[in-house]
């Protein structure tokens, strides 16, 4: 397999504006996973229940403070200022929600403590309260980590080849169409994926994270999906009872709006971690675990990196060693960069610009035309 700079590619969708993209290497790395692990300080692999809990308590404290300030002072603002203040609250609270969601995600990777049962109990409660199916997501996400970059077995953000695109993709390939697509993706995309496996791995029958009979899960995992559903239904019922007492508008103001912001960021973060013109996809003839794990992208969200517990800018090391706690991930990332070298991928483009750019430039995938040697390696394209 080969690597290097691509031919000038039409990143802006205009033949008159060409930009050369440095593609991620697809050759066999000159290092092993054991070599990478040796470069990381041993304490980075240590999980502390007390320290992990401290981050959770900190985030929950922020949630309570923001809730108290919003419910106490926003109603007192003169009209129409509350209509401006509530969205600000939703954004800030939604960002804190992402931090809590990340802690639940770490529980699913057994990165919260040394005890799996503790991790599962904490993760189940956290994710249920954020309307995320804990065990369902844990199972499919684990398989995503085992098959990253594989066109045949990866579980999420599996791009289509040009021949498999629907006709609507062509008609939506314009500023209005992209705006509409992004609006749907950011508002409903998380639940659409969970409900009908949109943008996920193709299965031979209906697949859903909520269905214990789904082909996503094996027979011995189906009881966990049922437990997950019970958790989601229970918390949804609690929200309903609170809404009947306090009003549905109040529940949306203090919880629903922030949850929508969290979902939008969740889709943005995960989409941008796996979508970039420099990142390859592999069919079964070329895929291997190491190259797949390295075909991911660290992104820079500025001050939000810390709010999000660095899930944004330490994604590469997370795919190599998913059990490293977030509070060691930055140190681990810095440690691996010298040995990983050009195999490490990072893009510092502001996320809102990158989201628009990638939605424009990464429409489908195709192997390089005429490259018989690497015909199992696919790259994002934007030109039909």
UniProtKB/TrEMBL annotation:
Gene Ontology BP, a term: lipid metabolic process
GO molecular function, one term: oxidoreductase activity
Residue ranges constituting the Fatty acid desaturase N-terminal domain according to the UniProt record: 24-65
GO cellular component assignments: membrane
Subcellular location: Membrane
TM regions (residue ranges): 55-74, 86-104, 223-242, 248-272
Alphabetical keyword list: Membrane, Oxidoreductase, Transmembrane, Transmembrane helix
Xref: InterPro entries: FA_desaturase_dom (IPR005804), FAS_N (IPR021863), Fatty_acid_desaturase (IPR012171)
Domain Fatty acid desaturase, residue spans: 85-344
Metabolic or biological pathway, per its Swiss-Prot or TrEMBL entry: Lipid metabolism
Keyword Kinase in annotation: no
Family per record: Belongs to the fatty acid desaturase type 1 family.
Name of the protein: Fatty acid desaturase domain-containing protein
